[in-house]
């Protein structure tokens, strides 16, 4: 498997942005082209004083850590392009410690470009962030702390999509997908995925109660750990099915489907079998959506249940799912952050997704809330797994106060036989159980300042008594707008990590200055 440069996701995302900017410039007059584009360069300087830089109570290392983070936020919307990008390069320097300087990247980018009107489009997503290698290893509450159990995970997904009509009878969608994932310092998370799907669906009409569809797909995932003998199996799945949907009422949609599939997720060789299932949705109001689906597979049944409800000041989401997960980052999918919850809540106030993105990020910064805060860290798996996950999340905004909270639990098991020569968390434990809770409260003191309090708890369990960790963390902070484009923050943090191998306690004071240009 070819080596992927560390900065590739950022460069590719920026390249997509330039392509979109060109499409935007051609879609109308220069004045019209500029109205949908926002580029905000930024620079963050953070000073952290900690009493345990290496997160080891047996060898405490009090130090001063400086993080310099230049970055850029970009949003673009035109009739034929939509792009959201947020990137920062974090350079960490250490004083009063022998720790060498480090760098890390943070990227979240999405792009949807219409290349040929009403026919061919390109969808892309790039993510770069920090990921725990082992669920049973050390977990930290800050990337500036030195943690050998943490690595930088980079992923890029590109999907060309063709959509059109077959006469006046049906619509079709032909999609190809290429995914590359790389984990710095470990081969367990290095995977490549290739897939294709075709869906043909009958045209819906106001008077039609029944609709039909046929769907065919194929997917192959290759791990770098599979190269050579005695490594991880490459996994592949393919299926073809037909389905029927019934709309008994304007609020209800019910359906069923059946077909066949082949896969090697549960066995060394490809096995064929029948697949079938049911699904449905209920939308009593534009603010409430309930969805459910169940599907039988030869390697284990899958299901998905979700309920979303939002009001002017509150958003609530409940979910329960069981699904097969390809090798790589496990437990990352489906987790809702503060950004996700508020993006859902403000859908009525700002329907436009690009403008809503800017509004939510400004709201988070003004209230001192972390945009990417999650309740569990997940881990990296070298083989295919089965993930069962339940989550409840909520957000509430008052005149001065903002409250977000979530609780989730998950169980991860290996799919198929254990591959020889590969070591990950599921090599020594049949299951990885994780529980996470998080809460954030922010209060606006004045028009330009706010105070916040955040708490989190996460617990991980395996089959053995030694496979048990837990972390409790609390963060109190104050932030203020010091100028039209300048924000200052002061945070106090206390963390306790329980483990039979490397427990620790850590206290820190963090002062941060953010300048937007």
Can you walk me through this structure?
- The protein is mainly β and 517 residues long.
- The protein has a 22-stranded antiparallel barrel. A two-stranded antiparallel ribbon has the order 16-17.
- A hairpin with a 7-residue loop joins strand 11 (252-263) and strand 12.
- Helices cover 9% and strands 59% of the residues.
- The longest helix has 19 residues, at 8-26.
- Helix 3 packs across helix 4.
- The chain has a single domain (8-509), classed as Beta Barrel (Maltoporin, Chain A).
- The protein has helices at residues 8-26, 30-35, 338-345, 353-366; strands at residues 37-50, 63-78, 81-95, 102-116, 120-132, 150-166, 170-183, 191-202, 210-223, 235-249, 252-263, 271-285, 288-296, 302-310, 314-325, 328-330, 379-381, 385-397, 401-414, 431-444, 449-461, 468-481, 486-499, 504-516.
Keywords, please?
mainly beta; signal; 517 residues; two-stranded antiparallel sheet; 22-stranded antiparallel β-barrel; CHP03016_PEP-CTERM; globular
Taking the alpha carbons of the first and last residues, their distance comes to 40 Å
Using only C-alpha atoms, the radius of gyration works out to 24 Å
What share of the residues lie within helices? under 10%
Low-confidence stretches: 21-34
């Amino acid at each position: 498997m070819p080596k992927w440069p560390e900065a590739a996701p950022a460069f590719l995302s920026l390249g997509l942005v330039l392509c979109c900017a060109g499409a935007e410039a051609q879609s109308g007059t220069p004045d019209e082209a500029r109205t949908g584009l926002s580029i905000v360069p930024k620079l963050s300087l953070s000073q952290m004083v900690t009493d345990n830089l290496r997160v080891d109570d047996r060898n405490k290392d009090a130090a001063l850590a400086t993080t310099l983070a230049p970055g850029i936020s970009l949003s673009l919307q035109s009739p034929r392009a939509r792009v959201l990008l947020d990137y920062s390069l974090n350079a960490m320097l250490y004083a009063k410690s022998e720790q060498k300087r480090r760098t890390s990247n943070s990227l979240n980018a999405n792009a949807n470009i219409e290349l040929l009107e009403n026919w061919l489009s390109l969808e892309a997503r790039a993510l770069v962030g920090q990921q725990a290698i082992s669920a049973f290893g050390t977990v930290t509450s800050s990337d500036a702390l030195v943690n050998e159990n943490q690595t930088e995970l980079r992923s890029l997904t590109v999907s060309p999509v063709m959509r059109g009509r077959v006469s006046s009878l049906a619509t079709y969608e032909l999609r190809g997908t290429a995914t590359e994932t790389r984990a710095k310092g470990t081969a367990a998370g290095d995977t490549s995925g290739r897939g294709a799907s075709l869906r043909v669906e009958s045209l819906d009409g106001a008077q039609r109660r029944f609709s039909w569809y046929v769907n065919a797909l194929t997917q192959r995932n290759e791990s770098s750990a599979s190269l050579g003998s005695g490594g991880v199996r490459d996994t592949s799945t393919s299926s073809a099915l037909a389905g029927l949907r019934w709309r008994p009422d304007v609020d209800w949609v019910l359906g069923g489907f059946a077909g066949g599939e082949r896969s090697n997720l549960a066995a060394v060789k490809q096995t064929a079998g029948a697949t079938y299932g049911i699904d449905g949705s209920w939308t009593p109001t534009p603010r409430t959506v309930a969805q459910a689906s169940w599907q039988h597979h030869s390697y284990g049944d899958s299901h998905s249940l979700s309920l979303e409800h939002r009001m002017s000041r509150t958003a609530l989401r409940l979910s329960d799912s069981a699904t097969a997960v390809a090798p790589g980052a496990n437990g990352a999918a489906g987790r809702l952050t503060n950004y996700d919850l508020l993006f859902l809540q403000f859908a009525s106030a700002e329907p436009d997704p690009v403008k809503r993105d800017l509004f939510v990020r400004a709201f988070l910064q003004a209230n001192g809330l972390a945009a990417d805060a999650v309740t569990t860290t997940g881990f990296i798996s070298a083989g295919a797994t089965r993930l069962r996950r339940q989550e409840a999340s909520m957000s509430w905004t008052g005149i001065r106060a903002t409250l977000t909270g979530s609780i989730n639990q998950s169980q991860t098991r290996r799919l198929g036989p254990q591959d020889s020569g590969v070591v990950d968390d599921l090599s020594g434990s049949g299951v990885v159980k994780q529980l996470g809770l998080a809460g954030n409260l922010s209060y606006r003191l004045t028009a330009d300042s706010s105070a916040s309090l955040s708490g989190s708890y996460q617990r991980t369990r395996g089959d053995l008594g030694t496979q048990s960790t837990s972390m409790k963390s609390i963060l109190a902070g104050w932030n203020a707008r010091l100028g039209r484009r300048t924000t200052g923050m002061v945070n106090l943090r206390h963390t306790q990590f329980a483990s039979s191998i490397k427990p620790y306690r850590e206290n820190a004071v963090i002062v941060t200055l953010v300048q937007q240009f």
